[in-house]
Design goal:
The protein is mostly helical. The chain contains 13 helices and five strands. The strands form two sheets. Strands 1-2-3 form a three-stranded antiparallel sheet, with no helix packed on it. A hairpin with a 6-residue loop joins strand 4 and strand 5. The longest helix is centred in the N-terminal third of the chain and has 22 residues. It binds heme C (2 copies).
């Protein structure tokens, strides 16, 4: 093979490779423009429950003040890839999402695609929210619009190359993102559906209570079996019956409201925030979460 042919082959391979990269990494919004009207007109009261169950405030509330409804963003979210700063999602038209339509929110949190067609980092847990019902999405947007606007501007993410290239997230999604559904055990008993939806989709418990591989994807065999806290320090314990069998369903439901374990230990770390949100749910929803968690297959705790 002559040098010229070699160069031509190399050029072709590179071109095809780049074209394939571009095609496979394309952001795919979940909803199309004709879905926009259908997603408007939610119920703000019910949306407050979706908001609490989904833990949005834990990442988006303005740090250093107690109001979980003030969503100025800017807290530090450490990850193995750098520090992320959840943005302002208050109804402020400039700094927040005041100009967004419900479909923009839907595409952001259910498929990780921004209104101008860029990928979001999976630190925004769209891998779980992907399974959100349209009714809940609609209600959530109605609720977000009732919150106080703030013009606070979150500092930019602190990531280094190649994690600065959002297009790579498209390849990550090919491996770890299932459009339109949340993960989780498929065997489903009637009566566990609500608990399954809360645990797997809205409250995204597995995002913290699982171990992740080098690319930050959840390792399926460790789902709910514990893992290093994605937000840096600490370990989110195994919550499958392999470790939690000593807790009754009632004790677990009470823990989700009070943050106190059956032995009287007060919960700490990021779970404290999760409890602050879950405490706002109806008791039936906490019972449903507890029932589903008790039904999980037992799995051994992975070594951290
Ligand atoms: C674990 C932390 C976390 C949780 C929980 C979370 N988010 Fe976020 N969110 C983020 C991060 C980080 C970003 C920025 C992602 C990026 O820049 O790619 C983000 C981005 C967003 C954006 C895009 C805003 C913009 O200006 O582009 C919206 C909208 C949003 N989140 C809404 C929500 C809602 C609603 C909830 C609850 C249903 C929620 N988030 C829960 C971390 C979180
Ligand atoms: C943002 C990350 C995060 C999310 C989301 C999360 N957890 Fe946790 N969870 C933790 C951490 C960290 C701890 C350990 C807290 C401690 O050490 O006090 C914990 C502790 C617990 C414990 C106590 C276990 C024990 O042995 O003391 C239970 C039970 C639990 N979580 C259940 C859940 C359920 C159910 C959900 C979903 C509704 C959930 N968690 C969502 C991070 C999280």
């Amino acid at each position: 093979m002559g040098t010229k042919t070699g160069l031509a082959v190399t050029a072709t391979v590179v071109t095809v490779g780049l074209a394939a990269f571009w095609a496979f990494s394309a952001p795919l919004p979940r909803f199309a423009p004709q879905d926009a009207a259908r997603l408007e007109g939610g119920d703000a009261g019910r949306g407050g429950i979706v908001f609490a169950a989904s833990d949005c405030a834990s990442c988006h509330m303005t740090p250093g003040q107690p109001d979980r409804r003030l969503l100025g963003g800017g807290m530090s979210l450490p990850s193995p890839f750098g520090t992320l700063r959840p943005p302002n999602i208050s109804p402020d038209p400039e700094s927040g999402i005041g100009r967004w339509r419900a479909i923009d929110l839907a595409n952001a949190i259910m498929s990780g695609v921004s209104p101008n067609g860029a990928h979001y980092y999976p630190a925004l847990p769209y891998t779980s929210y992907a399974g959100m019902s349209e009714t809940d999405l609609r209600d959530l947007m109605a609720f977000l619009r009732t919150l106080p606007p703030t013009d606070h501007v979150a500092p930019p993410h602190e990531l280094s190359f190649p994690f600065t290239v959002r297009r790579f997230i498209g390849l990550w999604k090919l491996l770890y993102f299932k459009p339109g559904s949340a993960d989780g055990p498929t065997a489903e008993e009637p009566g566990l559906a609500r608990g399954r939806y809360l645990v797997e989709t809205l409250s995204h418990c597995a995002e913290c209570h699982s171990s992740r591989d080098v690319f930050g994807g959840v390792i399926e065999e460790t789902r709910f079996a514990g893992g290093r806290n994605p937000e840096g320090v600490g370990f989110a314990p195994n919550i499958t019956p392999a470790r939690l069998s000593g807790w009754t369903q009632e004790e677990l439901a009470r823990f989700l409201e009070t943050g106190r374990s059956p032995s009287g230990r007060e919960v700490g770390g990021t779970m404290k925030d999760v409890i602050a949100n879950l405490a706002q749910l109806q008791p039936e929803d906490r019972d449903a979460i507890a029932a589903y968690v008790k039904s999980l297959p037992p799995r051994p705790t992975p070594s951290p």
